[in-house]
What does this fold into?
Amino acid sequence: MRVLRSRTILPLIVLGLVLGVVPLALLSPAQARSQLPTPIGQDPITAGQPYTGDFPDPWIMRLGARYFAYSTTSGVPGQMLNVPSLTSTDLRTWIARPATPDAPAGDVLPQPAAWAAYGTTQPADGRRRPLQGPWAPSVTKIGKHDFVLAYAVQVAGAPGTLMCISLAHSPSPYGPFVDSTAGPTVCPSRGAIDPQVFISPSGRPWLVWKQDHFPAKLWTQPMDLAATGVLPGKKVNYLAKVHQAWEGSIIENPAMIRYQKRYYLFYSANSYATSRYAIGYLICKTWKGDCHRPRKKPLLATQGLIAGPGGPAPFVDTRGKLRLGYHAWDAGAVGYSTSLDCQLTLTCGQRKLHVAKLKVIKGGKLKVVRPPSRAPSRGVSSSASTWSGSCSPGSTGSPPRACRTSGWR
It folds into this structure.
């Protein structure tokens, strides 16, 4: 039975909590997906405060000495964020984006695509919550004052639960991002998810994505220079599909980076809600493809106090070292809970944010040189830094110039 990432929170979850059970019988089955438990034991995301909870399918981008992280929709029922965002300067303490008038609750995508599927119950703060998604967002710098957020969301009026790709732009990585698309950017008959905008050596953006059906495949295709869409009539280039035994029947989360003159394509494989989920990579001849797997085992798999790592997000740190952001379950708490009882024992399943350090070895192969030694705690020390109250964010969602080196820290 097909199992894909349950990255969604349905409006019926509120009814489910009242009744003590999620009314799955009322939900239309997702196309080619099984109905998996809805995350109901997540930690709340408090704007402007440190966060260590559920942060699935993360994306990490560095600008100067600051790191920005974005994830699939997360939060607690009734307070879900479409796209949560965190910042850090040390890759250890992550601070949730402060709430601003144009980004209520700190949501960097308060208004997803107009063509997405929405329910009748919506947040009172003016945001709009799709029925499914946003999933696996990535953010890429396109110009000096232009950042593009690529994500997947459910298409309104389509049979089943068709997920397709959209694009939103902002002059700041703090957002909010504005989606002005009239329709999906990429939307094959069975859907497309897990997008990344990769900048080629010529400066042209390319959209990397997963075709959402069996057998799943990873693709890339050229975009216009402003990254507002893909170029019509241009070839869609094949990158990869399931190939090795550990991958099971699922490959997803493609993420490409050029490092030391090589193109690395990271991916997740197997079933996300199990300890078999893991991260692999390919070395590609160019950003257009011709990729091969340099090893027969995952680069990062269940070990120690983490389980089921996935959602790879490669980036280069301030010292020029290759890093890999990813999510993972705490060992012993794999999969989302179906009851809030787990909160009594602090064992609710959450896909938490981790960062690994990678090293290039012979032949361009990669090695994890700093694997996780322990899982993040559920709590945060009272000494953890927070948003400085004397330096409020500007009306566009980004801190004023005087605050940009001391506000989010």
Observations:
- The chain has one domain: 13-403.
- The longest strand covers residues 306-316.
